[in-house]
């Protein structure tokens, strides 16, 4: 995504995938998708229109069944590209040394890509009804920047936001996500009355959830959550209004990718037979085993409360619930090679 970021995944041993390989997979998937959306679909549309004029549309469709199947298969393969780009963006955001330069380059690439994208998809240089996926990625990146900004100011009283603005976030954090629903096409299949009812229920659920969250964690943290929701909703609404590829749901996917964290991956034999991260071992120990020899196996319980998505720690996010945690776990731990394509993010390994 950007040359100032490090490899998103370190080169692994046998069976592993490097960050460069994942990027290549994403690009190939995107090219396959665009080939179907620009070349194959035009051939199919032109052919069926000619056949309809000649009164042989049904026969033409039967003769080209394979091409129709190929079109849908290519579009399905293309769907693999966007989640990978979201993952790379979230990883790059956390690893880049200059977020402003990262966002600027992504924005420039989105603008440069727009003309060839419009020519390929719509046959014209300018089209305000459909924007390329890099605008979605850019809006997702802006949402991540907002998350980090609000997190920093919440921890530094001298840089805190004005009290009226923090109070305003309590309202916008509940209202804007509800406004997003009718703007998007999520409610299109529903009748108008059902849309109003669903939006009302969503608003009530948001207010209720925020109320109990504030009771549990305090007003200050609630204001930060509402600020994050405001920024996320604004970016999702902007994506819908700009009609970017994947629109608001694409921005939401990027936010989810950022809040998540991979602690271990590798071949399934390695994960099941040699789990290295304490979180992985706890999950696997809870799987019921029908074998009589395994019934006495000790289950490693996960105690404590889940880490807040608003106040993410710099180090391992499982540290507060890990029985083996030490001071070293407070530092950021990246995935490192554990042999045989097995990678883990843990200071104990």
Characterization of the model:
The protein is mainly α and 349 residues long. It has 3 domains: 1-80, no CATH class; 98-259, no CATH class; 264-344, no CATH class. Helix content is 62%, strand content 2%. Strands 1-3-2 form a 3-stranded antiparallel sheet, with no helix packed on it. The chain is globular and about 75 Å long.
Number of strands: 3
- Main β-sheet, in a few words? 3 strands, antiparallel
**What share of residues are in beta strands?**
under 5%
Radius of gyration using CA atoms only: 24 Å
Q: Helix count?
A: 12
Q: Helix-strand pattern, N to C? A: HHHHHHHHHHEHHEE
Structural class call reads: mainly alpha
Q: On the 0-100 scale, what is the average pLDDT?
A: 81
Poorly predicted sequence stretches spanning 5 or more consecutive residues = 1-15
| Whole-number count of domains | 3
User: What spatial form do the alpha-carbon principal axes imply?
Assistant: globular
How far do the termini sit from each other?
Answer: 30 Å
Helix content: 55-70%
The spatial strand order of the largest sheet comes to 1-3-2
């Amino acid at each position: 995504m950007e040359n100032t970021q490090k490899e998103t995944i370190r080169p692994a041993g046998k069976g592993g995938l490097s960050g460069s390989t994942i990027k290549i997979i994403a690009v190939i998937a995107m090219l396959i998708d665009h080939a179907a959306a620009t070349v194959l679909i035009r051939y199919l549309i032109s052919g069926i229109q000619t056949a309809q004029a000649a009164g042989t549309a049904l026969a033409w469709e039967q003769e080209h069944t394979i091409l129709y199947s190929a079109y849908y298969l290519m579009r399905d393969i293309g769907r693999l590209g966007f989640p990978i780009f979201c993952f790379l963006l979230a990883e790059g955001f956390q690893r880049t040394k200059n977020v402003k330069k990262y966002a600027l380059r992504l924005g420039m690439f989105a603008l440069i890509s727009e003309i060839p994208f419009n020519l390929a998809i719509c046959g014209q240089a300018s089209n305000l009804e459909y924007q390329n996926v890099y605008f979605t990625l850019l809006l997702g990146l802006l949402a991540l920047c907002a998350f980090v900004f609000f997190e920093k100011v919440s921890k530094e009283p001298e840089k805190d936001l004005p009290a009226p603005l923090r109070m305003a976030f309590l309202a916008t954090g509940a209202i804007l996500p509800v406004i997003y629903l009718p703007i998007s096409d999520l409610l299109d299949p529903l009748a108008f009355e059902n849309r109003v009812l669903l939006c009302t229920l969503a608003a009530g659920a948001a207010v209720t959830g925020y109320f109990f969250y504030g009771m549990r964690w305090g007003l200050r943290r609630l204001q930060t959550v509402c600020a994050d929701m405001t920024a996320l909703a604004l970016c999702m609404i902007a994506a819908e209004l700009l009609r970017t590829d994947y629109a608001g749901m694409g921005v939401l996917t990027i936010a989810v990718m950022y809040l998540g964290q991979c602690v271990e991956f590798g071949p399934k034999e390695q994960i099941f037979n040699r789990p290295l991260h304490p979180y992985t071992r706890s999950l696997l120990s809870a799987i019921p085993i029908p074998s009589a020899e395994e019934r006495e196996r000790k289950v490693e319980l996960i105690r404590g409360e889940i880490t807040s998505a608003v106040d993410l720690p710099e180090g391992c996010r499982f540290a507060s619930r890990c029985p083996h945690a030490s001071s070293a776990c407070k530092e950021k731990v990246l995935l490192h090679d554990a042999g045989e394509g097995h990678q883990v993010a843990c200071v104990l390994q």
